Records
---
Amino acid sequence: MVILGIESSCDDTSAAIIRDGVLLSNVTASQAVHEAYGGVVPELASRAHQQNIVPVVDHAMKKAGVGRNDLSAVAFTRGPGLMGSLLVGVSFAKGLAASLDIPMIEVNHLQGHILAHFVREEGDEHVAPQFPFLCLLVSGGNSQIVLVRAYNDMEIIGRTIDDAAGEALDKCSKVMGLGYPGGPVIDRLARKGNPHAYDFARPQIGGYDYSFSGLKTSFLYNMREWVSQDAGFVEHHKEDLAASLEYTVVDILMRKLRKAVKDLGISQVAVAGGVSANTGLREAFMDHARRYGWKVFIPKFGYTTDNAAMIAMAGYFKYQDKDFCSMELPAYSRA
Ligand code: KG4
C-alpha cells in the first residue's frame, strides 16, 4: 500500500510517501517570502504553493523510488488552515486522484500533528504512544489538550479561548523587534537568560482551557513602560525577557496538562505542533517524566512543524478502514 500525503495548510508545501506504514520520503518547501512582512501573507502563500506543489510532489516520489502507477491513494490536508493555501493542495490531490482513478483521503491537519507520533522510518527503533493517551497540541494557531482514544477517535478536552501559545510567542517577539517567526528566536535567546528575571500575567480560567491574550497584553504594557525609561532596554535584556516569557508560556501549558493527567488518570502524554520544537517545553516534558512518572512522547524536530509525513500517516490508517472521501468535498478553514 503506497500513500502520497500532501500538506499545504499554511506556508509549507509538503509531500510524503508512506509504503506499508514506513516513511520513504518527506519533502517540504518553506516560504521565506513572508519574513519581510512579520507574518504569513495569505495571498503570497497560495501563490508560492502553486509554484511549489508540482516539484515538491515530484521530488518526494523520486526520492521514494515510486511512480504514479504505484500510488494506492492520495491523502491531503482538508483543513483547518488558510483557505487559499488549502485549495492548492486539495485541488492538486483531486486532480491527481481523478487522473489515476485512485481513492482520496481527507485529513484534519490537527489530527495529523498528533499522528506524527506514529511516523516510522526504515530501521527506526520507534516507540509510539499506546491508546488512550493525552496530547498537548501547540502550534501557531492552536493550543489544545486532546484525549486520543484511537487513530480515529480524538476528543479536544481543552482549547485556547483566545490566542494560541505560538501566536503569543510570535507577537511578543514582534513587540521586541526580534523578527518572524518569533518562537525559534525566543527559544535561542532564552537559553542564555534568567527565566525568573520578569514576572508576567498568568490566566485564571477554569477547566483545561487556555488563554494567552492576558500574557501578551501584560508583556506589551510592561515593555512600553521599560522602553520609555530606557530606549536600549530590549537590546540589553532580550535574553532575560525571552527566558521569562518562555518560562511563563511553558508553565501555563504544563499546569493544565498536569490537571488533565491527574483527573483522567492517563499518564502517557505526547506533545505535537510547531511549539513542541521549543527547548523549554521539551525539558518540561522530560522533567515531568522524571518527577511524576509520565511516559512522554516528544516528536523528532522534522515532525514538529507542518509536514506531509503526518498526513500520509493519517492516510495510511484511514486507508485500512476504507475511509475514503468524495471529489466534491470542499476545504475548510476553521476547526
Ligand atoms: O505547527 P506550526 O508549524 O504551524 C501552525 O501553526 O500550524 O507552528 C508554528 C508555531 C509558530 O508560532 C512558531 O513560532 C512556533 O510554532 N515555533 C516555536 C519553535 N519553533 C516553532 N515556538 C517556540 N520554540 C520553538 N523552537
---
Amino acid sequence: MKIVEMRFHPIAIADPPIRSSYGLHAPYALRTIIELVSDDGVIGITETYGGDSQVAGLEALRSQIIGADPYRLTGFLSSLVEGVKPSGEVRNDRSQTFLVPGENPLDATTRTFAAIEVACLDLIGKSVGKPVCDLIGGRVRNEVPFSAYLFYKHPGGGGEGTDARSDEYGEVLTPDSLLREAKQMIDAYGFESIKLKAGVLHPDIEIESMKVLYRELGVKYPLRIDPNCAWSVDTSVRVGLELAKELSGEGYLEDPCASLEGMAEVRRRLDEAGVNTPLASNVAVTSFGDLPKSIPLRAVQVVLCDHHYWGGMRQVQHLAKVCQVFGMGLSMHSNSHLGVSLMAMAHVAAATPHLTYACDTHYPWSATSDEVCAGGRVPITNGCVKITDKPGLGVELDYDQLARGRERYARCPYRKRDDELEMRKHVDPTWKRILPRW
Ligand code: GKR
Ligand code: MG
C-alpha cells in the first residue's frame, strides 16, 4: 500500500469564553483535519492542533509522505520523534514550556509525527478491517472513562456575531455556579470523576469550590484540580493541605506550581505533613527528556499523556511502561477538540493497560453543530466512549461539515491560540500571565 494523496483541512470551531491561568479562550478554537489517501482509495483521517504553523509543519513533510508505505512510518519519519542529532547523539530533548499546548516550538516535530501516525493507523485499520486499538496491541477495555472538565467562564457559548452559539452553562465564576456546571455536565454525559481548571480566581475561592463539589456530590466523584502553575510553592502546599480529604482516593493535584524543583518541594512538604495526594502534570513533564530529572526528584506521581504532542499512540504506550516501572500513574490531557480526536484518545487509552485514570476531555465544550464526524457527535455515555469493532478510529468525515469548518477558519481572524491576548481584549486590558500569581 502507498499513500498517494495528503489533504489538510484547517478548521475553526466555536469555543466558549472559558478561563485558565493562560488567560481566556478565543471565540473559536483552531483544529486541523488530515486525510491520507492510499493507492487503493482508502482514506485515513486524524485531527490535530490548528493554525498556520501546525499546517506548515505538516506541509513540509509532503514529499516524504506521498509515495510512502503507511506500515513503515518508523522508517521514513522516525527522526521526528526518536532520531539522532547530526552529532550522532540520541535525541532526548526536554520540551517543558509555559506556552499553551499546541504552540510550543519544542514539541513541533512530535506533534507533526503524531498526526501522521494516527492517520496512517486509521488508514491501515480501514484497509484491513480492524480498529486502531487492536492494531497497537489490542484493547484492554471496551469502554474508556472520561472525566467532567469544569472551567470557570464568562457568559457566552462561543462563536461570533451571527455565528454566536447558545450559552449552555452561563457565567460560572463562583462555587455555586461551578456546582451547577458540574451537575449539568454529569447529567448530560454521566461522568464519574471531575477536574477543575483552576488558577483563575483567588485560591480561597477555588478551595471553596472544591469543598462544595465534594460536599454536594460526595466521595463517588474523584476530584482533581489544575491551576496550570498559577501558585507559588507555599500556596500549592496550603491548597494541598486544605484539600487533602477532597483530593483523596483517585484524585490528584495537577501542576500546582511551575518547575520540577517547585513540584518536588511541594511533594516533600506534603509528605512531611502526612498528605499523600499525588502530584500530576502535563506542564512539568511533557516529553521523555523531562523524565530523567523528574523521577529522582519525585516531582510528579501521575503523568498526563497526550498522543497529540507526545509523538503519537505508540509513544504514549512507551510512556505508560516507563511510568509503570517507576511507580507513577498515567492519566490523559486534553485541549479543545472534536470527535476524531476523541476517538483517537479513546483508542490509545483502550490499548494502554496502565492508563487507569479517567481521561480529560474538552468535548462537552464544543458545539454539536461544529462536529465533522459523519452521523454527528461521538456519544459519551455513563462517562465513557465505547470502542466498537468498526475499523480504524471508527469514524468517517462529514464533508459538508468539514467545508463549514474550513469556511469558519477562512472567515475568522485567528491563526494561533493566544489566551493572554483574548483576556486583554475581552476581560482586562492590562492582564498579563504572571507565574506564580498567588
Ligand atoms: O483549555 O485552557 C485550557 C486548558 O488550560 C488546556 O489548554 C490545558 O492544556 O487542559 C490542559 C491542562 O490540563 O493543562
Ligand atoms: Mg493540566
---
Amino acid sequence: MIGLISATAAGTAARDRLAAAWPDRTRVYEGPVGDAVRAAFAECEQLVCFLATGAVVRLLAPLLGDKTTDPGVVCVDEGGRFAVSLVGGHGGGANELAVEVGELLDAQPVVTTATDATGVAGLDTLGLPVEGAVAAVSRALLDGEPVVLDAEVSWPLPPLPVAAEGSHVIRVTDRAAQPAEHEVLLRPPSLVVGVGASKGAPVEEVLGLIEDALRNAGLSVQSVAELATVDAKSDEPGIVEAARRLGVPLVTHSAEELAAVEVPHPSAAPLAAVGTPSVAEAAALAGGGELLVPKRKSARADGHASMATCAVVRRPARGRLAVVGLGPGARDLLTPRAKAELRRASVLVGLDQYVDQIRDLLRPGTRILESGLGAEEERARTAVAEARRGQAVALIGSGDAGVYAMASPALAEASDDIDVIGVPGVTAALAAGAILGAPLGHDHVSISLSDLHTPWEVIERRVRAAAEADLVVTFYNPRSRGRDWQLPKALAILAGHREPTTPVGVVRNASRPDESSRLTTLAALDPATVDMMTVVTVGNTATRDIAGRMVTPRGYRWQEAAS
Ligand code: SAH
C-alpha cells in the first residue's frame, strides 16, 4: 500500500489525483502531518508526501532503520513539478515510484542514487541475494574502475561493465565461500534439494539433514531455489515447515514422474511406500542438472531409524530470451516494457539499423551483436545460442518482432530449456492506420508481397481470397528495386472486386522523421511512388474518404443503427 500525505490545498489536490488514479494501491492519511507520516511509515510499503523534502527528512530521521526494509519515500513539491525519490530508492522502490508518480502528475522524476543516474544496474537490484563489499564494488563500477565478473555458475544477469582483470570482483557462486575484501558474492537460485521423509518426521531432523548436506558439500543455503519431493509428501509437516523456514517453495512431482528419473541409488523402501524407487534423488534431478550431493539419510543419535533423506542438484541455468518489438520508429511509440527489456539484457542481437535506433537506451556493459540485412537465420541462431548459455538476451525487430520478423525463426530454433518473453510492438499497419484515419475498422489482413521466402502463387492465392472476402488489405514489403511487378498485380486482383474509387492509403516511414502519407484510390495509385519503407492499405467496398481521412465503417448494420 502507498500512504499519501499532504498539508496544503495544492498538495491535497495532487494527492487526490493520485488516490483517484490508484484507488487500490493508495491510502490517504489525514490529520496532523507528523502523525500521518509516522503512521504511514509504520503501515505502508511506500509513501508519497506532498511536502517539502526538508520537512519530510526531519520527520523520517528518527524512524529510519535499514534500507532493505524501510518504505520507499517520494516527495512531490508544492508546484507539482518534481517527484523526488528521497529514501529507499532501490530496496523500497522509491526510484520507480518517482517515475510512476512523475508520469501521472506530469512531474519530473528526480533520482539521485548513482547506479540509476548512470545506467549501471545496482548490485542490490539484480534480484539475487548479495554478500560482501557491495558499496566498494558498486563504487568501482560507477567510477569506471575495472571489475571482474567471475561466474562459476552462469545466470542471466543484467549487463555489468566488467573487465578481464581488476582488483574488484563480482563472483556468481552457489558455494559457501566467504567474500574476499574487494569481492561481492551473488547467489543464484541454482540448487534444488530433493527430500523424502517418513510420516511424522520432525522438522528439526529434515532441516538438520539439509543444512548438514549443504555444509559438507561446501554449498550456500542462500542458493537453494526450492525443495522438491513426491506428491504424496506434499502435506508432510516436517517437509512443509523446512521449506517455510528456508523461505523457498516446495515443489512436488508424481510418483510416476519420479520413477522415470534415472538415479544412482534406487531402493525398495520408497517403492513400497509411495511407488517410486527414489524420492530425494529423483525429485532433485526431475528438472535435470548435476547431482552434487547423492542421497543422504538423517543420523539419529537416539538409535531410532532415520526418517529423512535428501539430495542436492545444481540445475542448469535457464537463459532468458526477450523478443522485443521496437515500434515503427518514434521513441514515444517504443513501449516502457520494451525499454525495460532492452536494459535487462546483457546481450543484444539485431539488425544494425535497429540497434542504432535504441543504442542510447542500453546499459554500459551490454554486449551488442549486430549484423546486416539478410542475416536473419544467423541472428536467430545466435540469440538462441546465447540464451542457452544462460545469458539474458534481447532479440530486436522493428514494429512488432513477431510480424514478418525475428520471433518465428528464433522460436523455431529454441528448445524448452530457456525462458522466452515476448514484448509486443506497434506494427507498421497500426502505425499507418492511425495516420490515415480508421482504415482497419472492420476485418482486415496483412499480406507481405515479398516472394523471397514465399512462392508468388501462394501470395497471389491469398490476395485473391482477401479480394473475394472483401477484407481491408495492408501490403508489407510492397515494392523494391528488384521486385516491381508484384504490387500492380496484387492491386489488379483487388480491383476485380472493388470500385476504382476504393480508397488506398500509402504511408512511408510512419513515425520517423521523414514520414509521409497520402490518400488515393485503386485507380489513381501510382506504384512507382511506393518503396520498401512503405505500407499500402487498400479499403474494402465500404471504406470511404471522409474529410481526407480513410474510414472503414464497423459494418453496414452498425451504420444503419447509428443513422
Ligand atoms: N516487423 C515489422 C515489419 C517488417 S517487414 C513491423 O511489425 O512493422 C518490413 C516492411 O514493414 C517494410 O517493407 C514496410 O512495408 C513495413 N514497415 C516497417 N516499418 C514501417 C514504417 N515505419 N512505415 C511504413 N512501413 C513500415
